[in-house]
Amino acid sequence: MWRGPDGWFDTTKPKLPQRGDILWCFEGEGRPAQFRLVKRAVVSHSKKGRDGSKVHFDTSLLVDALVNDLPWFAELRRSQFFSQGVIQIRNEETIGGLEQLAATRGLRPDLAGRLAARSQADDLAEIENDATISETERAALTLARLGQGAFREKLDELWGHACAVTGCSIRELLRASHIKPWCKSDHGERRDPDNGLLLVANIDILFDKGFISFDDNGRMLISSKLTAAQRRMLGLPGPLKRRPTLSQRRYLAYHREVFGFPS
Predict the structure, then answer these.
(1) How far, in Å, CA of 70 to CA of 88, rounded?
(2) CA-to-CA distance for 200 and 59, rounded, in angstroms?
(3) Residue 226 burial class via C-beta count within 10 angstroms: exposed 0-12, middle 13-18, buried 19 and up
């Protein structure tokens, strides 16, 4: 499936999608392949095209969930149609597993933007009104708070343009997250890439709210607030892809202390 210049998505599948049908998108990479559920979308309109169907989607969720070890996915993957794209999923257990992942790991792109904007508003106002900094520094701090500019670029380089935990490389899902909270950091710490992690949205929220942290070896620490069932649904734990540097460990120690994790 691909998006055409007219804004509709084109597919060569013979079956015409109906309004309310749900599209599940998987992404696989590596050898052996590691598969992730990356998107859930609901069909709003469809029509016959020249070589197949043309589809519009009404609602979509961005998801990042490793599915290789889930029983229903193993069954789905055994389907003869999986390598060409599954035409239709009928198994209730599989559908239930997909919906559970979407409910626990899904994030609407527009909602993610609004949530981030609310938390940034006061910080951006503080930068704008700070008379002690130069215009160059003001611009750099503004971009850093927005997860853009040099701060984001350096995090991209540090983590290979992929989530520091999951390895997901879908740019729209990645957040440039500060380890030591922005409001507690000085101007230098706010721009320091060692005070940052590149994380997918759901891991970023868990880290920001103190549901998870990391020790000096990069091992994930999980709050007792999350039950065993919730941990399984969220795909936890998952270590950092590489051991933190000495500078990163200093920031992680602060994060652990703030949220009550063992030092």
Answers:
(1) 19
(2) 20
(3) middle
pLDDT tens, position by position, 108-141: 555 445 444 445 566 667 777 777 777 767 776 6
* 3-47 per-position pLDDT tens digit: 666 767 777 776 777 888 888 888 877 777 788 887 888 888 888
Q: Are the C-beta atoms of 221 and 206 separated by less than 8 Å?
A: no
The C-alpha atoms of residue 143 and residue 123 are separated, in whole angstroms, by: 12
Q: Would the pLDDT of 84 be above 70?
A: no
> Within 10 Å of residue 192's Cβ, how many Cβ atoms?
20
Residues 6+ apart with CB under 8 A from 170: 27, 38, 62, 64, 200
For the chain, give the number of residues.
263
Domain residue limits, the chain: 2-105, 109-258
| C-alpha closest to that of 123 among 67, 197, 201, 183 | 183
Helix (H) or strand (E) holding 95: helix 92-105
Q: Are the CB atoms for 195 and 189 separated by under 8 Å?
A: yes
Residue with the two structure tokens 């257990």: 93
